[in-house]
Amino acid sequence: MKTKQIVDIHDLEKAFHIREKVFVAEQGVPLEDEFDEYDHLDGDCDHILAFYDGMAVGTGRIRVVEGIGKLERICVLEPFRAFGLGKLIIQALEEVAAGKKLAKVKLHGQTQAEGFYHKLGYETASDEFMEDGIPHVVMTKEL
User: Fold this and answer.
1) Which ranges carry the N-acetyltransferase domain (predicted)?
2) For the chain, what is the domain count?
3) Most buried in the list 25, 27, 92, 114, measured by CB within 10 Å?
């Protein structure tokens, strides 16, 4: 298992494929809501790809919002969720944030994954809200 920062369109397309399978097909997020103006390689976001046995099976991205690293679009294909890849993706995104000298990160975590994020040091910082028809909470972590 490993992660790498996405630097070419070929790997970015792999990330898009994973996101489409998880968020659109599995969770019912509308396709037009899943992809946005930050889905490119020109510096607005840093994208991560996670691999299991050489196959791309997870992804996430980070962008800087008001001086805070915002972790987004974190997902792992269903058959690979028991191997710790989610943790690996979060750690890789936090390393990107640290490299940018950011002191804090945040994310909109699905409430069903809130316990996972707590184990990684994140604190719930909001009441529950709906995003793309799925309950979420804002979660934060000091780096």
Assistant:
1) 1-143
2) 1
3) 92
Does 140 reside within a domain? no
Is the separation of the CB atoms in 80 and 40 below 8 Å?
no
User: Please, which pLDDT band fits residue 44 given cuts at 50, 70 and 90?
Assistant: confident
Mean pLDDT of 55-64: 97
What pLDDT score was predicted for residue 138?
Answer: 97
Contacts of 125 (CB under 8 A, 6+ apart): 106, 137, 138, 139, 140
Start-to-end CA distance of the chain, whole Å, equals: 24
Examine residue 57 and state whether it is found in any structural domain, yes or no.
yes
CATH number at residue 75: 3.40.630.30
The alpha-carbon radius of gyration of the chain (Å, integer) is 14
Residues 26, 78: Cα–Cα separation, whole Å: 9
